[in-house]
Amino acid sequence: MITNNQKQNIALFLALLFHVCGAIGILFTPYRQWFINNTPLNLLLMAGLIIFTQQHKPLSFWLFILLCFVTGIAVEIVGVNTAYLFGNYSYGEILGPKIYAVPWLIGITWFTTIFCAGNIVHRLNEWVLKKFGSNVQPPVAVQLFSFVFDAAMLATLFDWVLEPAATKLGYWQWKPEGEIPLFNFLCWFMVSAVLLIVFRLLKFDKHNQFAVHLFIIQLLFFLVLQTFL
């Protein structure tokens, strides 16, 4: 029987291996396009590793995955086909098969980003509340607002770091001149906030250490690509 610590170590090793090799392959080898074309494999593996390392998987956990997937696909379909959300953009072919011009893998990435950001801020909030002690507990509504705002900002920060590298890699393109609109980040924050309210209210374990590690690894990965591409 594999213990949770062993699962965490296996997942961390694989995440580091894939992202380090991916960065090296994209930046320093003649096989750059091969590594870029295998982005879907990496995205699926990382989502699978989150599920693999999640200690308890009640129905609410699976419902949250489904909600993130459906919401992510739905808002992206509206965005791509109308420009009413996020701005004027379109997806390339690298991320694979599409639903109404949106790669279905985008729904997976919404889950990964929101789940990781939620885990990080949930842990930080617990640490802060524990530090202040039980006598200085803010109202529940204040705790919810603080969690949602901080986690949505973190998810939006990830998108801000991701965007320049993603466009250079051909994941998607902004029109007409490639400038990323501020409106994109505002929409990211708002959609993330809605999903994070559900994350906070649903009853499932929110102490997945791998999710914390994965967020940091992916953030550093795209920072490196943004710097050297």
Question: How does this structure look, described?
Answer:
There is one protein chain. This protein is mainly alpha-helical and 229 residues long. The chain has one domain (4-228). The chain has helices at 4-28, 32-37, 39-53, 59-82, 105-132, 140-169, 182-201, 209-228, and strands spanning 89-91, 98-99, 102-103, 172-174. The strands form two sheets. Strands 1-4 form a two-stranded antiparallel ribbon. Strands 2-3 form a two-stranded antiparallel sheet. Helix 3 runs antiparallel to helix 8, helix 5 runs antiparallel to helix 6 and helix 5 crosses helix 8. The mean pLDDT is 95.
The quaternary organization reads as single chain
How many strand elements?
Answer: 4
Please estimate the helix content: over 70%
Unreliable spans are none
Helix tally equals 8
Strand order of the largest sheet: 1-4
Output the radius of gyration.
Answer: 18 Å
Describe the sheet with the most strands: 2 strands, antiparallel
